[in-house]
């Protein structure tokens, strides 16, 4: 299937100039360093982030310390956009940077003011919300129905879609165990199986080198479903017009 072309944030790019102008004076470019926690579950959001590159995963943690990833966000989405629901709406997930990159940052108060004034901004937030809910649904099904090998291949592809490097991902086994909700010993076994298939060429010192075509063969169908649905909801060509975004009735239940 191949990786999508690099571009700026697709939500911001979809806004007409007049609506983007409500945000632009208040946007500040920030660096998203790998392993940075952007927000923790239970915290109040103070900023909204629009990634231009990199990948952030939404993590759910249990009282016993176990974690699992429920979604990944890159240039097609935003972090903290649901702060428009009100100051009492606390984050239900922990957002962790898995692939370093950059983002445009704006305070929640500034974003909320622009959201209330602009129908176009409200529309892109709605599209982003549908995209996240779609991921939650499919990742939940994938976690329950598919093998750890297929799920690891899917996550590696999602992250590879959002990295600027060729075929090398900076990922430790600890990070992979957190994404998959499994022990590190299981991660070691799964990596060995994917290496035997040729989907992973090497995995050492926190670097995972992949063979993308073979990794796509090893992944479950959820990868294509999630990526295709995301591209329908927030298309690459939606530049300067939020009307290019798919409406809910065009998504056939997504």
UniProtKB/TrEMBL annotation:
It comes from the Bacteria. GO terms for cellular component: cytosol. This is Cyclic nucleotide-binding protein. Keywords: DNA-binding, Transcription, Transcription regulation. Pfam families: cNMP_binding (PF00027), HTH_Crp_2 (PF13545). The keyword GTP-binding does not apply. Residues 11-123 form the Cyclic nucleotide-binding domain. Residues 146-214 form the HTH crp-type domain. The lineage of its organism: Bacteria, Pseudomonadati, Pseudomonadota, Alphaproteobacteria, Hyphomicrobiales. One of its GO terms (molecular function) is DNA-binding transcription factor activity. SMART domains: cNMP.
